[in-house]
Amino acid sequence: MTKDLYFFLTVCVVLLFIVMLASIRSGRKERVGQVVVAFVLLEVAALFIWMAYGLEISPLMDSNPATVPVGWAGALAVFAVYQLIRVWRGETPPDPKTGRIGKVLLTVVIVAACIVGIEYAGFYIATSGMIILMLLLLGEYRVKVLVLSPLGWSLFAWLCFEKLLRLGLPVGKFWM
Amino acid sequence: MKKSLLFVALCLVILSAGAALAAYPDKPIRVVNYAGPGGLMDVTSRKFISVAQKYTNAVFVVENKEGAGGLIGMQAVLEQPADGYTVFAPTTSVVMKVLTSNKDIDEYVWGFEWVAMLMRDPECLIGSDKNAVHTWADVVKDAKEKNGAQLWTGPAAGGNDHLMAMKTWEVAGIKAKWIPYNSGPEAMLGVLSGQGVVYVGNPADIGGREGYNIIAVSSKERLKSFPDAPTFGELGLMGMDDETMWRGFCVKKGTPEEAMVWWEDLLKKVAADPDWRSFLEPDGIEVVDWGRDKFTEQVKKDVDDSLTYMKKYGIIK
Amino acid sequence: MEVFSHLYDGLAALAGARPFIIMVVGVIVGILGGAMPGISPSMAVALLLPFTFGMTPTMGIVMLCAIYLAANYGGSITAVIINTPGTPSAVVTAFDGYPLAQQGKAGWGLGISLIASVAGGFIGIAILILFAIPLAGLALKFWPAEYFALALMGLTTVASLGGGKWVESFVAVLLGLLLNTIGMDHMTGTSRFTFDIIRLYDGFSFVPALIGLFAISEVLDNVESFNFNMAKIEVADLKSVWPTVKDYMKLKWTIARAGILGTVIGIFPGAGGTIASFIAYDVEKRLSKEPETFGRGNPHGVAAAESANSSSVSGALVPLLALGIPGSASAAVLVGALMIHELRPGPELFTRHPLLVYTLFSSLLVSNVILLALGAFGSRLWIKVSLIPKRILYPFIFVFSMIGSYAVRSSLFDIGVCFGFGVLGWILNRYRYPVSPIVLGLVLGAMLETNLQMTLMMGGPSLFLTRPISALLLLLSVVLIAWPFIADMKARKKRQVQKSKGK
């Protein structure tokens, strides 16, 4: 990640905040989510265009590797802007009601922890841990299920992938 | 009491010496391919292993770790301990990939010991007799007429086939354009259907496919299996009789000497095997049994050569 | 009519316990491998490749083809039950298959996908047997200009994928196209947007992204909105109703059209079951009297998708047998299998080993029948999966997705890609952006760019119009994209006329 890239991303984040505040202040609080998503997509398009101009043109071949990505990104930017205008004008339904976002974020955290965990504790332990945590998160408290599920899973994974397919599953640095 | 202790100690020493002498290989050897199943090197590795089973009880497991033109497979092998139980199956194009991707040559090329080179497969120019342009004379004439718009096909941009094409253009004094297709067979189809005029590949590519002919082959003398294919030398293109693609096996540097000698030995046996030879020779491939010395020399030559040409043609800086 | 006598010889070669067992094993492995996300049909074929070395070449190829055929059906099982296409070609099956399962009609989803797969398979096999050589000639006419036009036609399906939300759909497809540019540019060998991560040199691995966009985003969505304590009540209501023969007969034209379309598209190397199923789906949607029901559980959608992807298997064998060029990744593995047995794929096979070729054809027919039997039996088991309470099912979907994403190239990075796309899909879905156009963009991006650049190199933009097939396909694309707008305008005019009459 070069310094230029950091700068670009910082500018993007700042602009996003400004746009968010603007939409809340101007009474569009019930569409803030859509504004943010559309604006982020616009920024992604801009990012790709900016990165594309850094691509070297090889003297070897006639074609320019930047042409098509800039084409897609440009079109994406145009449509993202159009969407932004539609949302701003209130032509879209309001943002959906937030459900149990907390649970979703916890889910993401558990999964991320599992992926990291695979490197240290190995595939079987990490995924078994994930199964147990997720079962608890989703409201399954029966001990039988909590114990049998990871065991059943580990057995299946071992039989199917290690023995049958001979695909090595990652072994952790510290154990298994 | 002392005597029994001494006896036990002696036994332990003998036992551990025995364990240390447990010959390589005493567990399965993983052969890592960078081609997908069914790909050229994958088929070659599998055939090698099936022939090798006549000469050894070793257990081999073939794995496919495709991606990044071979870099992912190389990385996978380099991440394993240097104990000779993880072996990489490279071809010339993997070395080229390291160069074009600006990867550290010391890490990716010289981090390996090049223990066994299986064959030398001559590069050649292939055309289609369905096209009006299918001999070298035609090609030269057509190139001059099209003034740089003549199309040559191959499976990638910047790879060893592309490099071969550029060398040929330079030596022949013609100008042409390179069109990369998604795969070798598709590039060949491109010539058969008339999109391009020449496909750069190896004589084996013709096997079983109708409608193709070899325009020129890189070899000192005509190939026995393709007696109608003129050599570059015969056509007046000098200095191009040693363009070959090799396939072989390499292990991580630091692998025990015992393992490496074992591979060199095994290769000698397989190279002499009639089954192995009959699998390769009909395609004009030269079966060799080069061990570390000659293989390393070949790789060095390829690296130096390629770097020179790549810089010259602007593929790398 | 010597074809039939050759076929009879081929069938005779299959008589016996051993060939039968080989085909059954192949079909089972194919179904299971196809159902498991992360194990692609080519991987399933590759897995059993070593086992074929001990067999005669003919039997080896028979088994591998059985796997290939069955795997394309297998992917639809998980697509329908848990919105996780087991193979990329089953993506489109999920569009209507999963909603059917959600409505408690998993039996319909599974039953239709099986029947359509088998029927489409038969159509493809028939076309392969009767027209292999002339069709191969068609492959020769397809230059990059034609491939580009075909991909463009595929892209026009975005208009119908999104339903009424065309701005959001266009944004989604462009995002997919843009993300697909990450990786090495095929034409120049330049690495684009990879941040020097070797795992990105070939771009995002497609299967993990697919699993993430479909399965993971769906689970996250349900986690957000469901009240899991209610799950038990749902279970009791679930009906395992299977469609009747009459219901299947209603789909016959859809299956026929999609079968032919799938075979033809499968012939062109590089265009596979996935593209075939997108286009077949779109065709059926446009021909349907109730297009708005597509994407909500319309059986025709499932039938079109499965028929097309199964028939494309035979399509991919056309260039393999007639030209020696594999029409798909799985066909490429078959090439390897042939080569190990020292056979060369190509017209030589027809002349030197005709019995092998016709035994292969016959085996495709027989394997298809075995698929029907085993699939019907298996469906009764698979449907039980939809009865598992969601709070237990979802963690398992996660671990299956993990192992599936990992399995593609033994990479932890791909697991991250899977869940990254899952979160992306969840967020986008939340704000009414459809996810399927992203997949379309990921599937078609490289095909569009590479063939565009190649055509420009070959003769410039005029080539698109001077080549007849390309011009025709491009014209079709324009018509397809304009159609909804024109239809809309006509309807508006009609309403205006009626309004003024009413006054």
What is the gist of this entry?
The complex is a heterotrimer of chains A (176), B (317) and C (503). Helix content of chain A is 71%, strand content 0%. With 176 residues, chain A is mainly α.
Describe the structure.
The complex is a heterotrimer of chains A (176), B (317) and C (503). Chain A has 176 residues and is mainly alpha-helical. Chain A is 71% helix and 0% strand. In chain A, helix 1 packs antiparallel against helix 2, helix 2 packs antiparallel against helix 3 and helix 4 crosses helix 5. The mean pLDDT of chain A is 88. Chain B folds into two domains: 165 residues, 3-Layer(aba) Sandwich (D-Maltodextrin-Binding Protein, domain 2); 94 residues, D-Maltodextrin-Binding Protein, domain 2. In chain B, 41% of the residues lie in helices and 20% in strands. In chain B, helix 4 crosses helix 11. In chain B, helix 7 links the parallel strand 6 and strand 7. By secondary structure, chain B is α/β, with parallel strands linked by helices. Chain C has 503 residues and is mainly alpha-helical. In chain C, helix 5 runs antiparallel to helix 15 and helix 13 packs parallel to helix 15. Chain C has a two-stranded antiparallel sheet. In chain C, 77% of the residues lie in helices and 1% in strands.
Total helical segments of chain C: 23
Q: What number of domains of chain C?
A: 1
Which chains make the largest contact? A-C, 68 and 58 residues
In helices, the fraction of residues of chain C equals: over 70%
Largest sheet entry of chain C:
2 strands, antiparallel
Question: Could you say which structural class the secondary elements and strand pairing of chain C correspond to?
Answer: mainly alpha
